[in-house]
Amino acid sequence: MPTTLNEQQETIRKFRSIANFPTVIGAIDCTHIRVKKVNADGGQLYINRKGFSSINVQVVCDADLKIMDIVTRWRGSVHDSRIFRECRLKQRFEAGAFSGILLGDSGYPCTPYLFTPLLNPTTPQEERYNRSHIRTRNTVERCFGLWKQRFRCLLRGMFGDIETAKKQLLHVLYYTIWPST
């Protein structure tokens, strides 16, 4: 996450250039990484709402589709809002560490630092808010798409047991954040 005021202002400027949504410093969402083999003990806890075993990974990206924050430790059955509620990034926002906001989908709670779309917009202003929100937040969806295309194992799923899958995921994250030149 951007730490200095200058870094935060630059991130906010880049997000604003997408759809004129002010003060955004990150787009947040979760994605499920399929796990092919789950041990019988507690394996049902990894079954997500779509019916397959997975690890639910939370990502915050910037306007350039770069991952700024990631949480990889949750089972597939855990809801996105719980992952955010219990992550360190939420604590940092509540402590005032950032001068901007996050944009999330309707699976997250709307807070002073995490804005979500309006479920039933009725005015032109509310519809404009939603259009701008969706276009700006789409950066995290595009980030997931690029990430899974570059590392096909994220698209196909991780082989082995949960612990092996988590180690594989850590290797992918390492090469995502520090790619070889």
UniProtKB/TrEMBL annotation:
Residues 28-158 form the DDE Tnp4 domain. Its cofactor is a divalent metal cation. It holds the Pfam family DDE_Tnp_4. It comes from the Eukaryota. PANTHER family: GH03217P-RELATED, PTHR22930. The keyword Plastid does not apply. This is DDE Tnp4 domain-containing protein. It is found in: Nucleus. Its main location: nucleus. Keywords: Hydrolase, Metal-binding, Nuclease, Nucleus. It comes from Parnassius mnemosyne.
